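Dear colleagues,

As part of the handover before I leave the project, I'm documenting each prediction I ran so the next person doesn't have to rerun anything. This entry is a single chain, and its sequence is reproduced below.
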Amino acid sequence: MTTMAFRFLSSWKIWLWPVLLVGLALGAWLLPWESWVPALRDWVQSHGPLGWVVFVGVYVIVVILPLPAAAMSVVGGLAFGWWGYPLSMLGSVLGAVPPYLIGRTWLRGILLRRFPGPRVAAADRAIAGNAVLFVTLLRITPILPFTVQNWLLGLTGITFWPYCLATLLGLAPGTLAMVWIGEMGGLATTRTSEAQLLIAGAGLLCFAILMLWLTRVATLELRRAGFGAQD
């Protein structure tokens, strides 16, 4: 990726988090969910652990396929409240593993044979040597879709456990934001006072500002690390 392309992406995609958070929060406030959100939560409560397993299983499938995984975190907040956060994190990490393993086991060797040379090898070593930092920053930034990241990272020299750890760290803030929005939607369907909803909304707004700052920092760090340098 050239420097110009990287700067173009970071210049507009850096605003993706706050815009997405505000839009979903407005949806949580305005959409008529009173009829089906309580039914969803009743189903979850009546099925106990089966509901957790079903949600995590669907989440894994959504992450592997090119589908909007963030929407699943919102559903997690709607269905499970704050318990949707660990369930969504589990689904995200489990869903990120198969594409990585496929790339690492079968596709990485083909790529290295197709593009041999000291420059590719040096870049691969640099990424693998800073695996946790690199993957964490990449997960925070919205430069590439999550599913695309999983496939591409399997082509690098990053090993399994640093990959999983960095995925967990990098996804934690954004997943929390999505579950928060879902929880707000759940609150809007119950007998929650407007004051409580306003407090929850204000907290979400502050978190959106934090996400904007984190995304900006991560983007700058990736740029300093050479991501987006000229080929």
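The mean pLDDT is 76. Residues 177 and 207 are 7 Å apart (CA to CA).

All the best with the project,
I.
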